[in-house]
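Pipeline run #58 for the internal structure catalog. This entry was flagged by the ingest filter as a single-chain record with no existing model, so it goes straight to prediction. Upstream metadata was stripped on purpose; only the residue string is passed forward. Reviewer on rotation: M.T. Logging verbosity set to normal.
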Amino acid sequence: MCNSLARELSCTNPIAYSCNKSRRRMRNATAEALKQLMDTAGSQRELVLDSGNGKVRLDFKAENLELWRDTLQSVELAGNLLVACESNSGPLNSTRLSWIVGAAIRTSKIESASAASTLLQQLGASNAQADLVALQCPGLGEDLTWAFYLDRHGWLSGAPVTNQDELQRPTAP
C-alpha cells in the first residue's frame, strides 16, 4: 500500500486531516452532475442503483442533507468523506461501516474517487458497491464531501454534504 493511501486510511494520522472546515466551492462540472442526479431522483429524492453485488442508495432528501451538513460542522477534524462506523477508536480502516444507534461518525481526507472506493471496501462495502459509488458520486475525493453508511440490509447509502442553496450559487470553473 502506498504511503499516501496509508495516510488516507489512518484515523490517527493528522496528515489525513489536512483540510480545514471551510469547504471548497464546487466546480461547475460537479454541480451540474449533482443536479442531474437530483433531477433523476425526482420527487422521491433518492436513487437506488444495483451494483450487481448489493444496492447503492444516493440520498438527496433535504432533512438528511441537513443532518450530514450539521455533522460535518460538528466534527473536530474535518475531511471530505464522512462514514458511519461501528467504532470511533483506532485506525479508520480497522472498523466497519454501520448505521446503528450510537454509530461513530468518522472523517477522512481522500484525494480521489478511487481512494474512496478502496476505503469503502475496507470498511465492508462490496467491491461492486464501492466501484459504483466512485463512478456515480460527482466530486467524490475532489471538491464535494460525501457521507456513507451501510444499512441493515447491506445497502451502501451515500449523500452529498451540501444543500439546495449551494446548488443555486455560482460555482468555480
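catalog note: The mean pLDDT is 81.
catalog note: The chain is about 35% helix and 15% strand.
status: ready for reviewer M.T.
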